[in-house]
């Protein structure tokens, strides 16, 4: 199981307990048994890849953009996805995705200034999102595990939709040519993490979407999709937030 694998890799019992939400007493009991008791196994089964893979791909995109996981004082963790008040449809889609991925974990909304934190408490969120760790995402390495990459490969548009719905937008740009104003739609994905932007651009490339990187000052934070055919592809599968 995942927790025992972490211990076998040399991780301390305290750090594994914090990451998985499993008590140190339970970890000690499992480590001392070749075959853990069925009761203990049932209380901390590692999170298998979710059965609703499309919803997971979407939720993974949301998490990488605007999500975080925090420990609960009595064990377990809270998953929180920040969604702007301006997009009630996004709040509903996020809530539905969480329910589809973890049907037994309740979802509730916490109103913040200008946004809603779509929140769910459970003991397996760190298993579902092993990218969780101390510090900001753009200050640490973000790499998908093999089973996550398989889901993204199977549901790439859902993954991109989650990224765009969290840290992206669809806007109308304009330019003037020969004295005439022209307007055209454009998609942006903006994120400080080099790793997360690469996950976005790699997936766009597999989907046949052409993209470019636009710098904000000297920082290449923006992924831009502006070519007509690529915008049409994005419109067919993503569309504007609502």
Defining key terms:
242 residues, 11 helices, 43% helix, 4-stranded antiparallel beta sheet, Endonuclease I-creI, alpha+beta, elongated, 8 strands
In short:
By secondary structure, this protein is α+β, with helices and mostly antiparallel strands. The protein has eleven helices and eight strands. Among the domains are: 2-43, no CATH class; 53-136, Homing endonucleases (Endonuclease I-creI), CATH 3.10.28.10.
What does this structure look like?
It is a single chain. This protein is α+β, with helices and mostly antiparallel strands and 242 residues long. Among the domains are: 2-43, no CATH class; 53-136, Endonuclease I-creI, CATH 3.10.28. The protein has helices at residues 2-8, 13-20, 24-31, 38-43, 53-66, 88-101, 125-128, 146-154, 156-167, 194-206, 228-237; strands spanning 67-71, 77-84, 107-112, 115-122, 168-177, 180-190, 212-216, 219-225. The strands form two sheets. Strands 1-2-4-3 form a four-stranded antiparallel sheet. A hairpin with a 2-residue loop joins strand 3 and strand 4 (115-122). Helix 5 (53-66) packs across helix 6. Residues 34-45 have low confidence and may be disordered.
